[in-house]
Description:
- The protein is of the alpha/beta class.
- It has 5 helices and 5 strands.
- Helix 4 runs parallel beside helix 5 (155-162).
Amino acid sequence: EIRIPRCSTDGVSPKMMHFSFDDTIASLRDLTEKSASYASIFDQPFFSVLKQLHDQYGTVFSCYCFYQILNVDDSSIAEFSLEDVTDSYAREFAQNSSWLKFGFHSLHGSMNYAKETAENAKSHYDNFIKQIVRITGSADCIDLAVRLQNFAGNIESCRAMRDRACGVLG
Length: 170
């Protein structure tokens, strides 16, 4: 069982520029599928560009993720999920957690939280947190400001995510 430590907001500046990307599970999938040839997370093209921008400009990034990618031909089948992502790069993700974060987007691309129950939102968010901590090796890699799919979330779902471990702050 993975123990999820309390997330910290220490050291967060009141002045920041938010630069973010949606649907970044595809980059984690590529990182996993090519782990035999990627010695570093920054060998993966998407993360490589983020590292270059961070090194050159000090930019910080939020990568919003679906929990799973559905099969194109049969949307009842998840063909890839965060559970499938390698944790081989956890130490490197943790070492870069000050500028490279991951935030919850949705269970998958065909779902938003406008009409979802609080129980489903809680379960989806908990599973996301558990997997991101496993993948990155640190709760410090979690962005506490979510970008929900379609910018949609009812009050019950949002409160449910707020009241969880590493709960949503924004």
